Amino acid sequence: MRAGTSLLEADGLVRRYAMRRGVFGREVEVRAVDRVSLRLERGRTLGLVGESGCGKSTAGRLVLGMEAPDEGSVSFDGKLLPPPRSAAWRAQRARMQMVFQDPLGALDRRLPIGAQVSEPLEIHGIGTPSERAGRVETLLRDVGLRPDQATRYPHELSGGQRQRAVLARALATSPDLLVCDEPISALDVSIQAQVLNLLVELQERFGTAMLFVSHDLRAVRQVSHRVAVMYLGRIIEEGEPDAVLHDPAHPYARALVSSIPHPGRGGQRIVLQGDPPNPADRPSGCSFHPRCPVASALCARESPALKPRPGDGRLVACHVAQGEVPAGSGLPELRKAA
Ligand SMILES: Nc1ncnc2c1ncn2[C@@H]1O[C@H](COP(=O)(O)OP(=O)(O)O)[C@@H](O)[C@H]1O
Ligand SMILES: [Mg+2]
Questions:
Q1: What's the CA gap between 234 and 76, in Å, rounded?
Q2: Nearest to 50, CA basis, from 259, 270, 281, 202
Q3: Which of the 8 DSSP states describes residue 253?
Q4: Which of 206, 286, 308, 331 has its CA 20 to 30 A from that of 190?
Q5: Thinking of the domain 8-231, which architecture would CATH place it in?
């Protein structure tokens, strides 16, 4: 273990995709991730939250080295990630695992659960066959499955049980980092809380660092030590989950937080004006300015950097929140729906 080095450091990541508009349309460039920097300490969970299409999954793939960034770099445990799919990258995968949204898609329908949980151990040459069998038993118990369920096939388990099996497999090699991309989104609402609780429990027990990617702010808050809010490929606010959720600084984060229903609390919902974000048609300046209730002229010209806000040091990318310009006028009023 090195002192002074974060487990994961991503600096200025940019990932562009070419996208064709319509059948005969010309190709346009989509910047799925646009100068994203992330830092994750050992044993901590960073929540990455934002609407669908804002670049969360792409950021997750870059961090795992499944894709190379067009710009920027990722270091894991103080070393640059090896090129995607190289032998060195494959070897390193024992230390970085992932869990996706759809457990059925992640599992092989033709193989019993136990064999699939054992697979990473075999791939990385860990243990003898009998040691691996013992490890599979322990892992199944760790995720709340019974060891006798090792012989079950994915379709014989419920959705929640399948995601537990996926987790057991991801944890088999005792990874330092787990990237969970919308791990509860495909599950029944009644099961979501159980799987979230399990994630928190496992994270605390094994000290696995986690990048938790979700569009669901409440889920992110429940599991994260830190949260980063994304909008159109960029992180626009970052801080402690309670601080960001109780007192969001960025106008977009405020709208996002206000959209969480609070049963019985009523509350004001901020309805965003303007078109939903389109990464193929990125506005000038701050990407959020056409929809922002407080944007001023500077916001249309200059993209704000993510930096500590004077006063409390909250990381925020907003000229207005930084006090660089007064809140603009003449833009659509902030409409508040009941
Ligand atoms: N492989 C790809 N090829 C082309 N465009 C992509 C690809 N992956 C993602 N994108 C685009 O990049 C943007 C961000 O996508 P994604 O990272 O999946 O967002 P999120 O996970 O937040 O929903 C979207 O506009 C998406 O259409
Ligand atoms: Mg996604």
A1: 21
A2: 259
A3: H
A4: 206
A5: 3-Layer(aba) Sandwich (3.40)
Which of 55, 98, 58, 62 minimizes the C-alpha distance to 80? Answer: 62
238-295 confidence digits (pLDDT tens): 999 999 999 999 999 999 998 877 665 556 677 777 777 788 888 999 999 999 999 9
Q: Please report the atom of ligand 1 found closest to the CA of residue 233.
A: 14
Element spanning 298, H or E: helix 297-301
The residue extents of the domains of the chain are 8-231, 248-338
Amino acid sitting at position 100? F
- Phi and psi (nearest 5°) for 191? -90, -25
Q: Report the predicted TM-score, pTM, of the whole model to 2 decimal places.
A: 0.92
On the question of pLDDT at 336 being above 70, the answer is: no
**Once rounded to an integer, what is the mean pLDDT over residues 148-170?**
97
Atom of ligand 1 lying closest to residue 57 CA = 21
Polymer length of the chain: 338
Confidence of residue 329 (pLDDT cuts 50, 70, 90): low
Residue 58's nearest CA partner among 7, 15, 12 is: 15
Residues having CB within 6 Å of any atom of ligand 1: 17, 19, 30, 32, 50, 52-58, 279
